[in-house]
Amino acid sequence: MINLLEFPYNDLEAFVLEDLKESRFRAEQIWQWLWQKRVRSVEAMTNLSKPLRERLAAIAEVRWPSIVDAQTSKDGTVKLLLGLADNRLVETVLIPMQDRYSQCLSTQVGCAMACTFCNTGQLGFERNMTFGEMLGQVLVGRQYLEDHGLNPLKNLVFMGMGEPLLNLDNLLKVLHALPDTRGLNISWRRSMVSTVGFPDKLKILGDSELALPAISLHAPNQELRARIMPKAAKVHLDDLMAALRAYPMRPRERITFEYLLLKGVNDSLEHADQLARLVDRKRGKINLIAYNATEGMPYEAPDRAQVEAFEKRLWSHNLTAFIRRSMGSDIKAACGQLKAAAK
Ligand code: SAH
After folding, report:
1. pLDDT value at position 143?
2. Which residue among 35, 61, 87 closes a domain?
3. Which of 16, 96, 138, 328 could connect to 76 by a Cys-Cys bridge, CB 3.0–4.6 Å?
4. 292 lines ligand 1 (CB under 6 A)
5. Are 291 and 260 in contact (CB under 8 A)?
């Protein structure tokens, strides 16, 4: 059975023209039902004739990821464990902001990067998520917020499970589909894609003008980065920084550098000084993340005072730096805690 959610707009149009032998504007109607009105069956597409709906339903369906488990943190963060068609599991997180929610999306089942501090990394890589699965997370997220009378979904970040740039073809299709006003209409100008960074793929993402990267840097020099992120650091830090210097940006835009503070590993003031030498303050800003401790990992969370001292030191170099609020850690929904184990 075809899942209609798996068609990017152009493919849906081709399907309508060639397989259904219907006119082009049926594609627009179907797309609207899927992504704007969020119907979950062909039968519900009531502006299609009954015979067309019957023909369509014989070969195609609308299959959302299923909610296997939902947990709400005391800070309002919601973590959804989603089941995919092959019963594999991923997690997505709804994060409350002032008057809206931001959703953190997964891009792969598991992750191949095996960063030494990350829970998802311990799972290993299972497979890429499809176009429909990635965007399906947004359907599920929006519906969940609506059903629970919560604020609307406005922002997306690709910071969940997986390495988005290793699923680049599908990611680009997703980024392209998001602002479609006949569909999800998630219309802030560019969304944020968190990645360990691959120069060739950053070039493609940059040229697409569909997103800004957040770079999981976590170390201010090659040697230390290789120690804590051995696979990611196969791309030499010099090559990564060169690729970022070439990243096309509009005025006032900045690349975010994520820096995870691990007690006694990368959190000294000398590390802050090195970091300040690495990042161009006109093109980059630094997002400090205190390590979310998890059992079985060889790291400890830094002291709050050290995190603040690190931030101040960056400020003293005139860098923009801020500490990321950690949300949902009581339900293991915070950065690096996504593991998609059924409870
Ligand atoms: N693979 C992508 C996106 C997923 S991770 C990437 O690496 O950017 C999202 C962010 O959480 C990354 O910056 C990641 O390094 C960070 N992270 C991983 N483990 C963490 C932990 N235990 N505590 C806090 N942040 C963590």
Report:
1. 98
2. 61
3. 96
4. yes
5. yes
- Looking at the fold, whether 305 and 199 belong to one and the same domain comes out as yes
Q: How far is the CA of 149 from the centre of ligand 1 (A)?
A: 30
304-316 and 269-278 are packed helices; what angle lies between their axes, rounded to 10 degrees?
40
Q: Residue 118 C-alpha to ligand 1 middle, in angstroms? A: 6
Closest CA to 178 of 197, 163, 193: 193
Residue 227 corresponds to which tokens in the numbers above? 């120690």
Is the torsion defined by CA of 253, 177, 244, 153 positive or negative?
A: positive
Residues in the chain: 343
Q: How many structural domains does the chain have?
A: 2
State the residue range of the domain holding 57.
2-61
Q: Convert the pLDDT of each residue in 162-177 to its tens digit.
A: 999 999 999 999 999 9
Instruction: Give all strands (DSSP E) within the chain, no chain letters.
Output: 2-3, 60-61, 66-72, 78-83, 89-96, 101-104, 108-110, 125-128, 153-158, 191-195, 211-216, 255-261, 284-290, 321-323
pLDDT tens column, 78-114: 999 999 999 999 999 999 999 999 999 999 999 999 9
**Does some domain include residue 149?**
yes
Which residue has the CA at smallest separation from atom 13 of ligand 1?
216
Structure tokens at 271: 């590390």
